[in-house]
């Protein structure tokens, strides 16, 4: 952390302050405290030269306000740079006095798996753990989601599917250090999966949705663009669909908007929201007899809730 002046928290400073489970608790507390994701300001996106995108995500709730300025540059990995960059400015809610500047990429890398973990707490049926997790992707979000899933329910087997075989092998090896058996695989492995996590930059479906079993849960977090999707129409049409916010999903979730444009589903196809599950307006365990799909686009209220929890955790850490 920096010296006098506005406290600045690097990725290294933030590492270890909150587990994915603790970040999920912060999100749940915000929803149970009355935060309404449907009223959250929409994301502002600006195309920039070189094929990148600048995102502005403000939010205010309770004692805090804040804004994330994030860059998404698909060409960065080839330059040896992270695909997602940015910073988060946390403010005191009543006075709007700046409190801290947090590494935006590290914040995103924590809050996205935390959102998925919170959804899975309510969508996974009680009782036996999932026999097989199929994890699409091998980047930072894949690692974060692996740890987040293990905090909710440890599967017997993890199967990693990624474009680069060496990256898939590395993630599978890391998964084995955390407990479950793990191997690399193919998209066809979803046929025997209880849980499928998609955290990729794919713009087209990753697997045949007809292979997903009726009791399986699928989480897709890779895109917030209306024309990009990780899941196909076949899965969406037969699944009970849950989202962070109906308004946000119907603006940004290509996984839903593409099937709707095809005439396969209507805007009323969404079963429920994260707030419905967390506050008990809908039963846990998901709808019986069909797959469960949680589609996340990432929202500003989530960044604020996790940033505030990180700031408070940092303060508690300094006091002990």
TrEMBL record:
GO CC field: cytoplasm
Protein name (record): Ornithine cyclodeaminase
Entry's transmembrane regions: none
InterPro entries: NAD(P)-bd_dom_sf, ODC_Mu_crystall, ODC_N
PANTHER family: KETIMINE REDUCTASE MU-CRYSTALLIN (PTHR13812)
SUPFAM superfamilies xref list: NAD(P)-binding Rossmann-fold domains
Cross-referenced Pfam families: OCD_Mu_crystall
């Amino acid at each position: 952390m920096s010296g006098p002046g506005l406290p600045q928290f690097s990725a290294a400073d933030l590492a270890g302050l909150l587990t994915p489970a603790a970040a999920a608790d912060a999100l749940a507390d915000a929803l149970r405290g009355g935060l309404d994701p449907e009223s959250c300001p929409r994301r502002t996106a600006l195309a920039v030269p070189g094929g990148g995108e600048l995102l502005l995500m403000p939010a205010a709730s309770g004692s805090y306000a804040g804004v994330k300025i994030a860059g998404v540059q698909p060409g960065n990995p080839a330059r040896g740079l992270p695909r997602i960059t940015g910073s988060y400015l946390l403010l005191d809610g009543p006075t709007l006095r700046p409190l801290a500047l947090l590494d935006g990429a590290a914040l995103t890398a924590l809050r996205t798996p935390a959102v998925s973990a919170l959804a899975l707490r309510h969508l996974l049926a009680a009782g036996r753990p999932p026999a097989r997790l199929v994890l699409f992707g091998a980047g930072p979000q894949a690692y974060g989601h692996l740890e987040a899933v293990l905090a909710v329910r440890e599967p017997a087997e993890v199967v990693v599917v990624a474009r680069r075989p060496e990256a898939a092998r590395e993630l599978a090896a890391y998964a084995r250090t955390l407990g479950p058996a793990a191997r690399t695989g193919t998209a066809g492995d979803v046929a025997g999966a209880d849980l499928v996590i998609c955290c990729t930059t794919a713009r087209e479906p990753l697997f045949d949705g007809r292979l997903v079993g009726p009791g399986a849960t699928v989480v897709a977090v890779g895109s917030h663009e209306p024309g990009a999707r990780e899941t196909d129409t076949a899965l969406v049409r037969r699944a009970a669909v849950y989202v962070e916010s109906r308004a946000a999903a119907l603006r940004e979730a290509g996984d839903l908007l593409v099937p709707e444009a095809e005439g396969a589903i209507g805007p009323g196809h969404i079963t429920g929201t994260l707030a419905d599950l967390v506050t008990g307006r809908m039963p846990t365990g998901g709808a019986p007899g069909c797959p469960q799909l949680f589609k996340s686009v990432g929202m500003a209220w989530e960044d604020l809730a996790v940033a505030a929890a990180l700031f408070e955790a940092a303060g508690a850490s300094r006091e002990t």
